[in-house]
Amino acid sequence: MFNPIATACFRLAARPCFRIHGKGRREEAWRVIDVFATHRRDQDSRWPAFLFRGTCITWTAAVIAVGWDFALEVLREQAVAPASCEHPVEVAGGRLRDPLGRHAAGGEPWPSASEVLAHEVGHTAQARRLGWLYWPAGAAFTLWREGPGWRHWFENQASQNGQFGGIVNGSVRPELMVKLLNNLRQDGLQ
């Protein structure tokens, strides 16, 4: 009951910048997840980094909040190499911050924006499973980030399980699409 009510509150307060297909590895069906963008989460925001600046956060099983700059980067990546439910984006090597493990799995040493979004999708699966307990668990364990040991289980699990199955057709806000097209023109990709 918690997830639908909290999600409805987010949808009443704002409009998503786009929607994505996502699921955890153990889930059979793909879910539609709203991605909301705010300038407070942009890299150049005046807000403190540990609270907002440059962060992505999963609020419910169907709501992820990011910065507008991050949303644009996801769209840029998806314009070049689109994900789909048949070929989802997953975190290389099951960790965002393990360059050697990522390299051994055939990935780049640093995660792409789409991989970070896959990690957040892993958190939506946790939110779906944990219900209202997701917020206290997230608050207690997210600051530990990924790594070895029991304190890191929450973040490790999100990276190992999240699957980003692409952007829902027709869901990108027009103003973000204009920014993307201008960006691609500047880079000579269009």
Structural topology:
Blueprint: H1 2-13, E1 18-24, E2 31-38, E3 57-60, E4 63-67, H2 68-80, H3 99-104, H4 113-130, H5 134-141, H6 153-161, E5 162-167, H7 174-186
Parallel strand pairs: 2-4
Antiparallel strand pairs: 1-2, 1-5, 3-4
Structure description:
The structure is a single chain. The chain is an alpha+beta fold. It has one domain (2-179). It is built from 7 helices and 5 strands, in the order αββββαααααβα. Strands 3-4-2-1-5 form a 5-stranded mixed β-sheet. The radius of gyration is 16 Å and the shape is globular.
Q: Give the proportion of residues in helices.
A: 40-55%
Distance between the termini: 45 Å
Number of helices: 7
Poorly predicted segments: none
Give a count of the beta strands, DSSP E runs of length 2 or more: 5
**How would you classify the helix and strand content by structural class?**
alpha+beta
Strand content: 15-25%
Q: Strands of the biggest beta sheet: in what spatial order?
A: 3-4-2-1-5
